[in-house]
Description:
single chain, 101 residues, mainly alpha, 0% strand, NAD, NADP_transhyd_a_C, proton-translocating NAD(P)(+) transhydrogenase, proton-translocating NAD(P)+ transhydrogenase activity, oxidoreductase activity
Amino acid sequence: MDGFQEQLWVLLLGGLLGLELIGKVPPTLHTPLMSGANAISGITMLAALTLITRAGDNTLLLILGSLALGFALFNVVGGFLVTDRMLTMFRSGRKRSGGGR
């Protein structure tokens, strides 16, 4: 088995394991989990931008860096939208009683 096939197996098994683990996360932990994923995606965005700026004339690196940047940006924006939606759900369920808020 060559290195590329091994990497594909690791990607496949990691994806399946990730789906199984995320499916078992209780709803109360989704917001902290999403903020952690946003932080990791922010680091991925910085790495992708660094790759793109240093790729030079290498088309493959430009394509891979652009794909990584796009997927990380999609994850960050989606994470913020989901987090905002969940926080709105918690806010609208409470009655405001006096106070400064």
